[in-house]
Amino acid sequence: MRIKTLLSMMLIASAPITGMAQGQAGIKAENLDKSVRPADDFFTFATGGWQKLNPLPAAFSRFGSFDQLQENNNKRINTILTDLLKKQGKEGSVERKLGDFYKLAMDSVRRNKEGVSPVKPLIDEMEGARTLNDLHALQLKYATFGYGIPFEYGFDADEKNAKMNILNISQGGLSLGQKEYYLDNDKATSGIRKAYRQFIADMFRLYGFSDAQAQAKRDAIMRYETMLALLSKSRTELRDVEANYNKMTLGEFKTNYPNIPLEQLANAEGIKSEYIQSMVVGQPAFLAGVDKLAATSNADELRARMEWDVILSSANYLSDNIRAEYFNFFSKTMRGTKVDYPRWKRATQQTESQMGEALGRIYCERYFPASSKKRMEELVKNLQVSLAERIKAQDWMSEATKKAALEKLSTFYVKVGYPNKWKDLSKLTIDPKKSYYENVQNCKKFWAEDAIKEKAGKPVDKDQWLMTPQTVNAYYNPTTNEICFPAGILQYPFFDPKADDAFNYGAIGVVIGHEMTHGFDDQGRHYDKDGNMTDWWTAEDGKNFEARTGKYADFFSAIKVLPDLYANGKLTLGENLADHGGLEVAFNAFMKTPEAKAGKTIMGFTPEQRFFIAYAGVWANNITEAEIRSRVKSDPHSLGEWRVNGALPHINAWYKAFGVKEGDKLFIPESKRLKLW
Fold first, then answer.
1. Which of 279, 284, 391, 503 is the most buried (most CB within 10 A)?
2. What is the pTM (predicted TM-score) of this model?
3. CB contact burial 259-270 (16+ within 10 A = b; e otherwise)
């Protein structure tokens, strides 16, 4: 089952506080570039030194302070796995399964010897299926993996009855991720599309097909995916949560899309028909198009698509030459990365992707004490108080909407560090006698079956985590009204236990406020305190909100990120609003601290100045041009530079802290600044 999950995620989170106001600045002087005026380019002023000290590593298309933390975490996790290899735990134990899987992931000698043999039986089976009926039978046989199925489906919360799970169906089928890669004709995108055509043919050859076969299959795949791109909504259009909610019965689905065998696919996976009598279709027009394509499809085209899904889903678990070809296109060509990650790092990440929570349990035992979790929960409560104050202070919001907003804020479900309960992996089998690819497939099947067992026809489990504890990230989920801060990100540069309040509020404080205000951004505001999609705003307040945020989208869309490329303010609107809210809420909370009131200068900077420098430091990074282009097409977050230089000019306190005035490059007249929180 291909699982679709609605998340409003944030690429930053917060960190545990073991001691505040130590009197030492968390800011590092060497990370600054004082030759640049903060009022002209605050990003370079606050991070220019870091950029010079941390040139872009060859294995990265973007490397920032955020990525440094991820690198440190990778080493910690790899230490856990290496230790497990040495000890070889008891047969059937989680430790043994982790160790056996990691050993398979590291054994490139065996994989190079095996070549494509682990996947050859499946490819041969598809080649032997000569008719559409034969191929459809294989799709049912391997329904868990969705070969040749151009849409995603799985159980998740019913957004208008958020306590219950329901089958959700959404668009898919684009190997390049976004429709623009197939349709845009600028030089950079055209180059990627040309390289993709070559990549498809090269991969088919590596899997044993002749030149003529590879070219024919390439042409079939390009034709089909281009048609899907024409049918697909853009990432920006997909931000309209109301448009993505189209409830229908199974009978209506069959009538609307007679050529899509949804019930047969679901049954083949072990999903009983009784659990899909009602469903939510995200993009009906897309499915209508897919239905028409299915009616005119031929066996050669469908077979090529199914085999292409097999190739893409297996490439990272086979021989080095296949992995290299995959890397050369998806990382080197599309993102500008020069070299692949070392084998140990790839093996670590792949182990995490299949048994991440089990690793997370060991990680938290070693690196995240309960005291840190408790302190973090206390800090979240402090920021909730600050956001409540900001909501009450808004003159554009009516008392009725304020009341509902405060109720939603007070019922946030806060998750910090690690889950209260852990997944049972006793039925997951890792067999060292089988190939690495076969074990990965077994893991995928285990997790698909687990999702069906836990969700089909069941209430939503609010204790379920959507990230592993060691993940360097955080999220807000609107249907459970929860904010989650995994243990993995609860470290410097988001938090420094020896640093002053200015640093910690500027870093983690903004992050916590950011996640909270996601509940009131252009998407989150459509969900009430119980997670149900409903309009709890007055009509006038809704208009006031859209009038303000529309100008913010326009502001970011006018930013030139490259000489020939503008940012996408509509795609990044939710994250930009959350950055703005996080800054306002955290600064409001910080100004109540004794340190802020004392006004002590450290390193030549006032408390207010240190707050904003700490915020900017989180986004220090170096990045390739190709990665910039990729992120502008696909990432709902603004680029690091503009999370600083785009966000701060809308914060009045920043102007006061640094004496920014008319004539300075970042100056925006107060009448044109975003006034929301």
1. 503
2. 0.92
3. ebbbeebbebbe
